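To make this tangible, we now present a fold written out as tokens:
***
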Amino acid sequence: MQGYLLEVLFPTGWRRSGNILWRFAEAEVAARAAIAEDEARAVRVLPVRVLRTSVLELTGEHAGEPA
């Protein structure tokens, strides 16, 4: 699965957003809006890949029943 993060250039340097955008078109719209509204000097769209395998899986017990 592919996602996208915005990396925004502020006067103090580049910072990555915490929001993952799941469609490239949404990432492009958000990047253009940040520039148009003078919220950023520049914006990069970075690809994020989400793998099917987990790095951690936790289960719990509910009302004394095993998960």
